[in-house]
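re: ur question from the group chat, yeah i did fold both. here u go
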Amino acid sequence: MKIDLYSDRAKTAVQSAQSLALARGHQQLGPEHLLKVLLEEKDGLSRALIQSAGGRPDAADAATDALLAKTPRVDGAGGQLFMKPDTARVFDAAETGAKKAGDAFVTTERLLIAIAKEGGDAAKILKDAGARAQGLETAAAAVRKGRTAD
């Protein structure tokens, strides 16, 4: 993961996901943590993209909460956080997607699309909520109207 290639909002999302995992006593940072913080974005861009892609953001949020609630807690781990392999694949897919699109930075919508493609349980949550990667890509392209993230 090359954090310097991430937009300020994407960096904030990654940091918030790490904070969420630590606050819940989770030892591993998963795509579900990132999905949760994206669903809580103030401007609701991720929620809007899910809806535009034919999905149900409230269903995705509820399923993400349920998954996080059943993730084992580890007390006394000293605040050490490990990255799940799915999370590494999400970051790689987001960086690859940004590069293919001609973006200088990885954006939050690229992270959301990457979760839908490579996010393991989080990808299944999006799929079950009606949002697939291709639909999210189409929705993101419509919002961007040909602009790139520079």
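okk and heres the other one u asked abt
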Amino acid sequence: MISKSPIHDSKLLSSILNNFRVYRNRKLPRPEIFSLDKTYIGQPIRNDLRRRKIRYRIPNKKNAINPEYLPTLKKYRWVVERTFAWINSIKAAKTCWEFKENNYLATLKIVFTLIRMSMALE
């Protein structure tokens, strides 16, 4: 989902979930679990994910009053950080000044293709 810069990422989560389309064996599965950032820590987001029966991993803030216990958070968090590091390693994706959405999506597709090719060559 691409949006204008003043829109906060957490406000786009419900529209992302509404437009989530991954077909496997002609079925449309819902995501099983989301690993999210501290940006998505709000109660409305947690309620929306619970209503959709999607488990989530959201790190607690350091000053949280009633922090949720997430036993396996650190085990999976590196996947999110590594993905963003890979994207940011290619300058065209990190500082993209494209005005057209299709051009930016094409840049991201090229970046992910390069990442997959480098993984296949290892």
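fwiw on the second one: The first strand starts at residue 33 and ends at 35. The helical segments are 13-18, 43-51, 73-89, 91-94, 101-121. idk if thats what u expected
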